[in-house]
Amino acid sequence: MTESNPNTAEINVGESAGEFPLWAAKEALKAAESALAETDKSRESLTKTAASLIGWSLPLSVVFGGVVFAQTLTLPQKTAGAVGFLLTTAAVLKAFQALRIRDWANGGLAPSQWFWLIENPPPEASSLYITVERLKSLDNALHKNDKYIEICAKHVRHSWLLLLAMPVFAFVAALLAVLIF
User: Fold this and answer.
1) DSSP letters of 6-73?
2) N or C: which end of the chain has fewer CB within 10 A?
3) Closest by alpha carbon to 38, among 157, 147, 145?
4) Per-residue pLDDT tens for 50-64?
5) Tens digits of per-residue pLDDT, 105-127?
6) How do beta strands 2-5 and 8-12 pair?
7) Dist. CA 14–CA 20, nearest whole Å
């Protein structure tokens, strides 16, 4: 729609009146699809980090587990190995928890929903109606995926914390073993 003013040139004000809701819904749909793509990137990044943490922690836990049973090592060394084993194993388990989440939402209408809409169109069916339904579906997917991202991030943070704290706790355990025994 353009407005005419004798003192200025015509100005295009974009969609208005009856066309505005459909235009706004389409713009919201673009923003929601973009946000869903970002959650996919976050998920991918977190799962890669969790897999890397497992790759570092698992061999360490095997080595520390072996230290506990070594005949030639002293009690403080075995104590440090035991603490290292426990913390690296806990880091592996926490990272694994991040990888276990599999119920991610894609935010689209399922084919069965499309078939139902095609075969039984509701009285209010229109391109605006379909766009709004897709927008609702994306909104639900975003909320669901955001919760999963938070859970994944929590497990990855805990795994990092356990792995990074391991040397300090192992040292303290060895020191206490020296002082007590």
Assistant:
1) TTEEEEE--S-GGGHHHHHHHHHHHHHHHHHHHHHHHHHHHHHHHHHHHHHHHHHHHHHHHHHT-SSS
2) C
3) 145
4) 999 999 999 999 999
5) 887 777 887 788 788 888 877 88
6) antiparallel
7) 8
